[in-house]
Amino acid sequence: MHKITSRAIIGMILNALDQPSNTWVDEISMFFNSTQELEEYAWLGTSPVMREWVGERIAKGLAEEGFKIRNKTFEATLPVSVDDLRRDKTGQLMARIAQLAERAKDHDAKLLTTLIMAAENALCYDGQFFFDTDHVSGDSGVQDNDLTLNVGTPSAPTSADMESAILQATEKMLGYKDDQGEPINGSASKFLVMAPVNHLRAVAGALGTTVILEGGQSRTNMIQAVGSLGGFTYGMSINPRLTNADRLYLFRADGATKPFIRQLEEDTTVSAIAEGSEEEFKNNRHLYGVKRIGNVGYGLWTGSVLTTLT
To answer: Domain Bacteriophage Mu GpT, which positions (predicted)?
Structure first.
């Protein structure tokens, strides 16, 4: 009888890790390679706007704002029975390997979701909470990305409620200014709506239907109108890790800078304690582990708006 080797199992894990991963992660976060335990991100304001060239060039200094992200080491270990290997339980083993790889690939989504849920009480580069009512940077003026909207039932909003929340957040985001007093989202046209599972039907209705039912009457869906007239597009991400049943998030998905940062010092590696090991002798099993070194952190808050339904 053929016996699956540790080399074959490692190959299965690596192949599974190469498959496509969560798409919303790339839409709302910037990726940076890391070369040390602690990385510093100097958010040095924004690039200067063009001006009429009169006299000499003017090199505009940048406002010094920044923060640091410390890398962490993450791991997961899968035990495999030597007897199962001998009995060639390939199908069962493949299912377990697929789940291990799926969870490893979903790791950044898990970290980012934790970051999002903590953002009302976590400081970002400007010294304010990431979601806050009084962000100020240079000549930006006071700006708010922590909104509220009064609806009938916050945990079970209607499509009309959700339409209002999404449009309110979009309007607010389009008005944000940088440290030079210039619009920072003037070219924005692609957005991501992130919501908990209990908002699925309302978000789908607000984004995907042409007609909204409100007060027993049918009317045009204004998100659809805005999309056709202004070229705006909205994606939907129903995130089952979100535990707040009354919160909706809008993110800009097409900016050069994004709301969050992913940094990676060491990509996912696979190792094994297998044939001929002390683990095999003592416990009649092999161990297969994945390891990754990196972390996530807050980027530019101007690409995100929190709406709390009340």
So the answer is: 21-140, 247-302
Question: Contact, 248 vs 193, CB < 8 A?
Answer: yes
67-106 confidence digits (pLDDT tens): 889 999 999 999 999 888 888 777 888 888 888 888 999 9
DSSP string, 184-218: SSTT--EEEEEE-GGGHHHHHHHHH-SEEEETTEE
Is residue 1 situated within a structural domain? Answer: no
Structural domain count, the chain = 1
Contact 244, 119 (CB under 8 A): no
Is 260 within a domain?
Answer: yes
The owner of tokens 């910037």 is: 30
Which contacts (CB < 8 Å, 24+ apart) does range 209-214 have?
209/159, 212/159, 212/160, 212/163, 213/158, 213/159, 213/160, 214/158, 214/160
Amino acid, res. 110: K
Interatomic CA distance for residues 126 and 64, integer angstroms: 10
Q: Which residues of 256-269 are buried (b: 16+ CB within 10 A; e: fewer)?
A: eebbbbbbbbeebe
Tokens of 234: 């909205």
Q: What percent of the chain has pLDDT over 90?
A: 68
**The whole model's pTM is what?**
0.88
| CATH value at residue 110 | 3.90.1690
